[in-house]
Amino acid sequence: MFKLALKTYKPLKLLLLFTLPVPLVAQVNWKAPETIDAKKNLVSTASGEAVVVTANPLASAAALKTLQTGGTAMDAVVSAQTVLAVVEPQSSGLGGGAFLLYWDQATKSLSALDGRETASAQIEEDIWITSEGKEMPWLMATKSLSAIGVPGTPALLWEGHRQFGRLPWETNFKKSIHLAKKGFIPSPRFLRSISLAQKLGINHSLTFQSIYLPNGSLPKQKTLFRNQKLASTLSHLAKEGINGFYRGAIANQLVGDLRFQQKNNQKVQTITHEDLANYQVQNRNPICRKYRSWNICSFPPPSGGGVAVLQALGTYELLSKQPSPKAKTNHWHLLAESLRLADADRSHWIGDPIDFPIPLEGLLEDDYVEERASAIQTSTTTFNPLHGKPKGSESLDLASQPRTAGGGTTHLVVVDTYGNVASYTSSVETVFGSRRLSGGMILNNQLTDFSFISNVGGKPIANRIRPRKRPMSSMSPVIVFKNDRPVLAIGSPGGWLIPHYITNALIGALDLKLSPKEVVTQKLLSVQPNYTVLEKNGNWSKAPTNIHQGLKNLGHQIKYSSFSSGLALIKWDKGSWHGAADPRREGKALSLQVEERH
Ligand code: GLU
To answer: Among 146, 159, 305, 318, which residue's beta carbon has the most beta carbons within 10 A?
Structure first.
């Protein structure tokens, strides 16, 4: 059971963030290969008693319909996720994994369901090492059969529905089956994602080509797109439930398809019947930490994202209380330094706790966060800071891993009329995952989120590959509480940068009291070990106080980048819920009362 303990903090100091509209330009970043939506400058917002925000209008409509017919937020998650599997397969689906943070109003409890993909019991630690003893290039690994972890999304939906659903399981599949069978008009993003997948490489997957590139070209923009095989997989899961997926016909087809693809290279390892049959959703303990007068809760390991958000907010809070003559630059400086320190810790200490014990309490306790904050200098930046040594880590002698790449992920938030709140991040890893399919569903490449090397100079890496282990994730679904009740839910795709986006957004929403629309349009800051990265489309050079120069004066090496965040958030304000979808993607906010579109 989840306990909320709140401590009152002094009123916050005024911080400045920018809330100008974002002019967007299509960009491809190979490390995070999802584009931003070039022409979208409208922000979808909605307010009401019950609100849903997903990354696609059809998924939001399905979730809203579910709420209208008396479904809970969990029913809405099942409806939205199954529709996303059809209309946004580049980001999530039945062949991927997910994390759910769920507030159950009736029992006043917060749950964290872990449906992360899992490595086969047969896996060996050197799958990403070539015969020359080198790390396999990441792009090559994404296509490999070995990259496919046991999917967790169907099991998570089933378990979440068992605990929190109200409508029949099958009812929540109606819309997705209909869309897969009868077709939908492909969105511009869907078509762009297919082009991206072509650039990443699809020669290894005839099935991808036949479904997503019929006759060798992109699906037509104005013609209904169908995926009959996916319709039948969804129908099967709807009727047979979880056993049909992990132990029945879907499992048989999946293993058969993998074996067929494996036929030319038996040495390539992949998942087995036993791996599917043994898959278990993990009920984890959410991690929570006070931030000023709020209690911020997120996902524990194997996510490193939640820990990073809570640590970064912790150091930021301590340092932002100190008065500064250059308050505006100081805000960005402190944010960058806080994120860089948190990154150093997650690169070092986080992995699936079945392998090494994670010093989780130590990483989040006040004394440790204070110690980390004291390492931040207000007058100069620190390049490549070291990880700390939290309590509980004394017996661990680990090496750090480099940051992971990613790209195919989605986030959705729902609050229903009963007061339940869901914050759900779901992923197939790279755009269209491995680009391999079975039963019309995209298969993930989530095992490329493991460290490619298992040790450095004999010291093990926490996120090394091990049988039945889950790769470290950055996915960070968040629910914020005030006086023991949920007041905000948020999350985003974005690979390693997810906790950076979320920390920016939470400071905007909580400290600056920005509306959801303002939060999703504010300029974002991210970090690398030696750089501070400002949003390219953020028009920073025209910022009132010349933030760029201010940061440079503090020693920051500045880089500019476009960010493909996909923030989805809902915030409680003045007696109702308000939601907004990130304009960098094609998301949609809908409510049971008034829908607004600005
Ligand atoms: N696979 C990544 C993770 O679990 C997410 C990729 C993305 O967000 O685009 O952290």
So the answer is: 305
